[in-house]
């Protein structure tokens, strides 16, 4: 299983100290380490970042990626449309994608959803409890119910997403808000998992239960079939009788 | 619109003082008053209770009911199977049903769901916040987001229900738990709405926002078509060509 | 209720005789006439076409439109991105949209779906039977089950759309294929209905049952709330406690 | 993986010749052979029939069953309620179930669905085409799209089931009807797959593609977690903080 962890890599490179305290080499490196920690030899992880040419997501990279993870926050608008289209094309053809936290507002995720993906938010370092709704879902395997995250940015409903294929997690925050924090979708031949915990200011991607969820999410999103572009082809009468 | 509010009517008749403080004439009378308050002349409300013959739910009563509301708690097992079948038959033929709070464990609701409807719970009089997930849903019309209920029994996930047709409300509790507190289903030709706020020990059915939700729920669940029993009938080749 | 029927208006203006035989003044005029025939004074219908400036879909026109109907086929790529974004913004804010037939491949629809919307097809003038799956759905009101369309282009599964919110119609074709021909979605605050019958070469939009479905679809898709742009706003702790 | 194939075993034992021509030792033996043929050593198959004590479905048998397959037709009413409850209890706790053809009207399936499960039908030995809607679904793996069944009983919409979790197959029949012939559900911790092809009068369970679907269905429905009965337990404040 080949995973590419993508990061916009802005908070870190501009020297935001609260971010560097937890992610000195970038959020992507910590997410990647978490996958390796949980999945071991079952996974090959590489990383890619927005400042690289083509944002590090060339046709070759995507063709060699089973699951793409996406973290972005303050540079969504600068992601090139051509790369967005390329990512969408690969998802539709079968590549899995796991979108993280503020990636809800990325071009890629809003294009997959077809909605605004707006939400309520507040950054006060509140406790987040991540409740498993569907305890038999493979993404929830091996995590406590609830997962307890001591400090997090609050994301609250209404979250403008289409009704998910599967509602895996719902979070509550110390301030009282709730959020559908783990949701799955199918788009084309690809699987989509969105997981909201993970702000840049808190060590959320070091949290062992969060790492477990991300590893489960990657396993769940991996393609089971060959990648194939879907097209609208004509079919003569009786074509299947042959 | 003709509504029948059904109550098991046990807490009140056995003299439970905490219940009688809020519902001296029974929970059903307060729920019925709430519907009249919000819907006025648009609704005719009658009540029925478990101690009555046939639990007050004769064929005639159900045939004259557009929407049935169901409140039960400690006498689920004593509800006669024949009456349960009768209610299910009417729901399948088009009668709406609104199931309240501990009615999640009633024979009627578990039969409509096909699952156990189990949940976590705690009765400590905590604050419940009822968040609207889908702000355009007619059941959420005219209520604040969130509804604030000062004291409530906690109902928590995992709630063993089938994934709802529509997820309208999710609650959080002061203790941190979350719950899918407002969910809709279609069964046969009938509409089903489950709404969890409403314990017997707290004045929840006097709460103006809760009353609004119940009125909205009744309006949403009302049948738009003639009641009709669904059967499996043979159809000859070309029957539709006329 | 204010409806705008939009047509790419290419087959007609380039003089395609098989199209002009049924739609001498454009498909949009026949669709508009059908709405007026069924809905009478309950609807105000205007039309807009791709050759007009801004494709006839200025901010002013969309602001005054409750439901937009979309027919396009061979000029999808020429629809300006700015107009597409404008339409999406209005759908997300609450405008209803009814997408017709080959509009499945339009920028607007694929952007709302987040998938490729590819399908199988064949144009041999086969009989299409449109079966109602959910007989209580308001879009199916007053139409026979099945609707019989003597001649149609075949659209067949797999149709690459997200699992619909509601599956209203499934069609079969004389050649044996099946198609999810009537599906609903929610996107943002807006309602989306896709209905596949309606090729330019057959008089499908003159068919009384098809006209009934389109009128029902418009009624179903109309907004029930004020149009409102969804944004991600910060909320301080305790903002709702007032 | 331990599978129990259950058959009402009435058509065969009363000497219905058209049935015995294809199923001389009972439908269950042919279904069981099909599973062994496709799954080989990965599966242990046993059978149980309605005439046996407790219908062959003792607590011990169910406790040792990962997936139960259910075929019944003319003796649904004679299935003992106690056995039905036992089966439901095991499904809710995690046992998978695959319901076949006329099993749509069984007590077990209608209880899992909560609806009438009525449908249209005709037995004229028509060609059925089974179209895959979701080509990436594991139940559709390795089968042609469409599967062609030369002779079948027609089952037609409207099929009164709750909207499925996943719509895997839709069939068309030579006479023009359509049917959601492969649908999945989750109930409690258990997975449910209904597959309609398979009348007693036609050799459908000898068809290699149908056998593949049944084997896929069994694999999909198998439990991934320990069997566990869901109950409603009280939880004190802060129980999860440990």
Automatic annotation (TrEMBL), chains A, B, C, D:
What InterPro entries does its record include?
A: Class_I_gatase-like (IPR029062), ThuA-like (IPR029010), Trehalose_catabolism_ThuA_prok (IPR009381)
The organism sits in which domain of life?
Bacteria
Annotated Pfam families:
ThuA
What is the organism field in this record?
Auraticoccus cholistanensis
Traced from the root, the source organism's taxonomic lineage reads: Bacteria, Bacillati, Actinomycetota, Actinomycetes, Propionibacteriales
Q: Which residues form the ThuA-like domain?
A: 2-221
Protein name, UniProt field: Trehalose utilization protein ThuA
């Amino acid at each position: 299983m080949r995973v590419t962890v993508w990061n916009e890599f802005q908070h870190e490179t501009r020297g935001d100290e609260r971010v560097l305290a937890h992610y000195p080499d970038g959020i992507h490196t910590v997410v990647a380490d978490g996958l390796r920690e949980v999945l071991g030899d079952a996974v090959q992880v590489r990383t890619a970042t927005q400042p690289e040419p083509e944002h590090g997501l060339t046709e070759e990279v995507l063709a060699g990626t089973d699951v793409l993870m996406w973290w972005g926050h303050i540079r969504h608008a600068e992601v090139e449309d051509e790369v967005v289209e390329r990512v969408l094309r690969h998802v539709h053809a079968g590549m899995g994608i796991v979108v993280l936290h503020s990636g809800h507002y990325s071009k890629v995720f809003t294009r997959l959803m077809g909605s605004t993906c707006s939400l309520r938010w507040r950054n006060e370092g509140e406790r987040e409890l991540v409740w498993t709704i569907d305890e038999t879902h493979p993404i929830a395997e091996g995590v406590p119910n609830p997962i307890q995250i001591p400090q997090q940015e609050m994301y609250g409903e209404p979250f403008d997403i289409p009704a998910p294929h599967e509602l895996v997690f719902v979070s509550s925050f110390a301030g009282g808000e709730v959020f559908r924090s783990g949701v799955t979708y199918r788009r084309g031949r690809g699987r989509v998992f969105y997981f909201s915990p993970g702000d840049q200011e808190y060590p959320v991607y070091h949290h062992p239960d969060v790492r477990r969820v991300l590893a489960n999410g990657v396993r769940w999103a991996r393609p089971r079939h060959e990648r194939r572009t879907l097209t609208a082809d004509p079919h003569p009468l009786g074509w299947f009788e042959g």
